[in-house]
UniProtKB/TrEMBL annotation, chain A:
Family classification: Belongs to the CPA3 antiporters (TC 2.A.63) subunit C family.
Keywords: Cell membrane, Membrane, Transmembrane, Transmembrane helix
Protein name: Na(+)/H(+) antiporter subunit C
Organism: Psychrobacillus psychrodurans
UniProt entry tagged with the keyword Oxidoreductase: no
Automatic annotation (TrEMBL), chain B:
NCBIfam families cross-referenced by the UniProt entry: 2a6301s01 (TIGR00940), PRK12645.1 (NF009285)
Domain spans labelled MrpA C-terminal/MbhD: 637-702
MrpA C-terminal/MbhE domain ranges (all copies): 716-793
Cross-referenced InterPro entries: CPA3_Na-H_Antiporter_A, MrpA/MnhA1/PhaAB, MrpA_C/MbhD, MrpA_C/MbhE, ND/Mrp_TM, Proton_antipo_N
Protein name: Multisubunit sodium/proton antiporter, MrpA subunit
Taxonomic source organism: Psychrobacillus psychrotolerans
Membrane protein topology class: Multi-pass membrane protein
Length: 113, 810
């Protein structure tokens, strides 16, 4: 399962990087969303997937899933939501001001500020 | 007062100067500054008797103990002479500047801060025994020189000159640092004295010549030797007190100091002897020839300084021959070192006074152009007298100290005859001949300087100001120097015993144990059998004839090809590096975030792959795997299909929904992998996210495919390759990280203590709110900031119209 997950994570990263490198703002934001999904799954996989039980204390159970990656991911999910929301509004605002969502046209230089 | 404190005293005082300048407006700030060199001269003066007796002083302060770098103040004959020069001339220059710089118009605060900074730096250079701290002070002199040349920073020429001097001297400084590091590696110490003790073994080291050449480049750039001298004439844009102080009396002599200081180490190599002597003589010759064609008073003095520095340099080179000879010949050549130090002192006196006179002329007539000047003798009689004393001394005329050292110099070049190696017997004669020609030109420009300014026809219509004698205070400093010029001629041996012999003993430690061993006496008259006498007479005769006919042959300089001048070379080099740097940085600083992301991703791939390859970390362990169930495969397929949908779709809506699908499948994974909290959070967040996307969707443009056409196929291919690289890399890392657990996870700690320490059962929740409570608090703060930003962006109306926007992009 870990190998399958690793490949899946790699695939998510690939898709995310491809989207981030594109010119459209919306695709870039979607790319960052995919990137955070990939990262969360990577954290989880690194901790091991073989846990028999959720990390909640219960009598007679010793084989818990690793709680630490889960704690980290929980924080990361919330933060990545914040990032997505912020960049989405930023994109909206930029589009209103600049009139395009093409990154190539938005870059600042002498010809084009 | 400790020696190290004395070095830093000027810098410490410099901190108070700006306040004094602001608060005490009725007293010229210079009067306060004057106290510093005054006190230091007295302080160093007390060391004279002990240093004369052959004692040395040392004081150490651990600066960076972990790297074994310390500030060592080492006072011997050589450093004491320089320290006295720095503080003594500094005192006169500050006094002069009080009258030269107007307290209403000039930014005196800046000026004196720079000057004091320089004073500390220069004292540090001549007293440091540690190579690294020597380098530190050395560069500090370059920086303060830069600031002082650029003092009138609104003038283009000032800024140009400042930058030029900085470029060339800092280049030399870096070379010198390289030489120091090599010395440190060879001798396993950075202490100059310890290196001197090891000199006889160092000379056989393979890197010895490299260290020698690199250190010499440092010395040559600083002391304006050929071909690095070009910065000195441009440095004349500095206020005249600065030119008199830094660019004639002290800073440019730092290179000479360096050569003198390292003579006991490097003189063992003949490369040193010929490089120092040859470059010195060439500079002497070159500088004197070009001084004659200058029309600016200060430019004449600048080229003359270049040439005189070359003279001293060549004397130091001849002096280092003493390490290659035995018996009586040793004193024949140590005599050259003696002459070098003597002329160094003489040069400081007469050139200092001449610079101050040039400043006075500039101040009182408003121009330094010698073609407009003339006939000032009757208007400015005192200035004329001082200028004459200085010029005659420079020309080497008797009754002035320059005569003594000039004759000693000629004697020294003649003594080269006795260094019979490498079949030198045939062409040694070249050295005295070059020296003689240079001396003739020195004679010519000395007379040209003084007589074309003060005699001839007075041309008031060409002068911006009505000329009159300078105020008395301004004349004090040059007058003191001029009096010294004459006094030294009449009692040379007093100065010889007091200052020069201790310095020579420091340069020639093998020949002399204590200063008293140096047995030279300075004489004005050597008898009729002296060859130097006839050479001097020849100089006077030919020099006078050339001076009389100067108007006829100076136009010949116009025939010099302008294209191959060193200045052109410097300008070209600067231009090239300017453009090159610009082109280089604009080639990768495209302003497009995408490019920067590509660099980051590429670096990620390369660095990670390299590190893991080196560490042999690509491991795949198939034993301890969790089993794969059908349900998990199904979710994986859904995830892949949704992701592909995002990649290929042209519709915004599809992309957003597909992203939501990815999020929900990830939530399903959390459930499978026993992470209920994550699953819950993910579901909530994903729902809100999709809602947000749909809300923004209404306002965002269509998901345009900007990538079209043939060029865009390449664009997409590039993106794909980078994306593929990142994906493969992450997969490999994920596998590797699963396959090798090098350290025990700290999760066990949480599992064991969660109930006893925190009293909770849900381990994840307890970690978040208890063990890592602050992290969660900050996480909330981040969200708050993000939401404030969002509110700001949505509610604040566009303040400016599109046309008003100005993006500074410089």
């Amino acid at each position: 399962m870990e190998i399958l997950m690793s490949i899946l994570i790699g695939f998510l990263f690939m898709a995310a990087v491809y989207l981030i490198l594109s010119r459209s703002l919306l695709r870039i934001i979607i790319g960052t969303g995919l990137l955070s999904h990939g990262t969360h799954l990577l954290l989880l996989t690194m901790g091991g997937l073989g846990g028999k039980s959720a990390p909640v204390l219960a009598d007679g159970i010793t084989d818990y899933a690793d709680p630490l990656p889960q704690a980290l991911i929980l924080t990361a999910i919330v933060i990545s939501f914040g990032v997505t929301a912020f960049s989405l509004v930023l994109a909206y605002r930029a589009y209103k001001v600049v009139g395009t969502d093409n990154m190539d046209l938005m870059k600042g230089n002498e010809d084009n500020d | 007062m400790s020696l190290i404190f004395a070095i830093f005293l000027p810098i410490i005082v410099a901190f108070v100067i700006p306040f004094l300048f602001k608060k005490v407006s009725n007293i010229h700030t210079g009067w306060f500054v004057l106290l510093v060199p005054l006190g230091l001269v007295a302080f160093y003066g007390t060391y004279i008797p002990d240093i004369m007796a052959g004692n040395t002083y040392m004081e150490e302060f651990a600066w960076i103990p972990s790297l074994d770098i310390s500030l060592v103040s080492y006072l011997d004959g050589l450093s004491l002479l320089f320290s006295l020069l720095i503080t003594g001339i500094g005192m006169l220059v500050v006094l002069y500047s009080i009258f030269y710089l107007d307290k209403e118009k000039e930014k005196l605060g800046n000026f004196y801060v720079y000057l004091l900074l320089f004073m500390s730096a220069m004292l540090g250079v001549v007293q440091s025994d540690h190579l690294i701290s020597l380098y530190f002070f050395w560069e500090l002199t370059s920086i303060s020189s830069f600031l002082l040349i650029g003092y009138w920073y609104t003038k283009d020429r000032s800024r140009f000159g400042a930058l030029k001097s900085m470029m060339i001297t800092v280049f030399g400084g870096l070379m010198m640092l390289g030489g120091f590091v090599i010395l440190g590696i060879m001798g396993d110490t950075f202490s100059i004295r310890e290196l001197i003790d090891q000199a006889s073994t160092l000379v056989n080291h393979d890197l010895f010549v490299w260290a020698l050449v690199l250190v010499l480049i440092g010395a040559f750039t600083k002391s304006a030797q050929f071909p690095f001298y070009i910065w000195l004439p441009d440095a004349m844009e500095a206020p005249t007190p600065v030119s008199a102080y830094l660019h004639s009396a002290t800073m440019v002599k730092a290179g000479l100091y360096l050569v003198a200081r390292f003579t006991p180490i490097f003189a063992l190599s003949e490369v040193w002897v010929w490089l120092v002597t040859g470059v010195g003589l060439l500079t002497l010759f070159w500088g004197s020839i070009f001084a004659v064609k200058q029309t600016d008073l200060k430019a004449i003095l600048a080229f003359s300084t270049v040439s005189q520095l070359g003279l001293i340099m060549s004397l130091l080179g001849i002096g280092s021959i003493s390490y290659h000879v035995t018996g009586d010949l040793v004193t024949t050549f140590t005599f050259a070192s003696f002459a070098a130090i003597f002329h160094l002192m003489n040069h400081a006196t007469f050139k200092g006074s001449l610079f101050m006179i040039a400043g006075i002329v500039d101040h009182e007539t408003g121009t330094r152009d010698i073609r407009k000047l003339g006939g000032l003798m009757s208007l400015m009689p005192i200035s004329f007298t001082i200028a004459m004393i200085g010029s005659f001394s420079m020309a080497g005329i008797p009754l002035f100290n320059g005569f003594l050292s000039k004759e000693m110099f000629l004697d020294a070049t003649l003594s080269l005859q006795q260094f019979n190696v490498h079949s030198l017997d045939s062409w040694w004669i070249l050295f005295p001949v070059i020296a003689w020609i240079a001396s003739v030109f020195t004679f010519v420009y000395s007379l040209y300087f003084v007589f074309h300014t003060f005699r001839g026809k007075y041309k008031p219509e060409l002068l911006p100001k009505k000329a009159h004698e300078a105020p008395l205070g301004m004349l004090v400093s040059p007058a003191i120097l001029a009096i010294l010029v004459i006094v030294i001629f009449f009692v040379p041996n007093f100065f010889g015993n007091t200052f020069i012999k201790p310095a020579v003993a420091a340069i020639q430690p093998l020949a002399y144990q204590v200063p008293a061993d140096v047995g030279f006496k300075i004489k004005a008259w050597h008898g009729f059998e002296s060859t130097a006498l006839y050479m001097t007479l020849g100089i006077f005769l030919i020099g006078f004839l050339l001076y009389k006919t100067i108007a006829k042959w100076v136009p010949l300089y116009e025939n010099m090809p302008a294209k191959i001048s060193l200045n052109r070379f410097y300008d070209g080099l600067m231009n090239l590096s300017d453009k090159g740097a610009n082109r280089l940085s604009s080639s990768y600083m495209t302003g497009s975030i995408r490019s920067y992301l590509i660099y980051m991703f590429a670096a990620l791939i390369i660095l990670l792959a390299f590190t893991m390859w080196v560490k042999d970390a690509f491991v795949m362990d198939l034993t301890n795997l969790a089993p794969i169930q059908f349900f998990e495969v199904l979710i994986s397929v859904v995830l892949i299909i949704s992701t592909i949908t995002i990649l290929v779709t042209k519709s915004r809506l599809t992309a957003i929904i597909a992203l939501g699908a990815v999020g929900y499948t990830v939530a399903l994974f959390y459930i499978i992998f026993k992470a209920p909290d994550l699953a819950l959070t993910q579901l909530v967040i994903e729902t809100v996210s999709v809602a947000l996307f749909l809300g923004a969707f209404y306002h965002l443009p269509k998901l345009n495919k900007y990538e079209k056409g043939k060029e865009d196929r390449r664009f997409r291919l590039n993106n794909f390759l980078i994306a593929l690289g990142v994906g493969v890399m992450v997969t490999l890392i994920a596998i590797a990280s699963h396959s090798q657990k090098l350290v025990v996870s700290i999760s066990e700690y949480y599992k064991e203590t969660v109930y006893s320490e925190a009293g909770g059962g849900n381990i994840v929740n307890v970690i978040l709110v208890d063990y890592r409570g602050f992290d969660t608090l900050f996480e909330i703060s981040v969200l708050t900031i993000a939401s404030l930003g969002i509110i700001g962006m949505i509610t604040v109306r566009l303040a400016k119209k599109k046309g008003d926007r100005k993006v500074e992009n410089k």
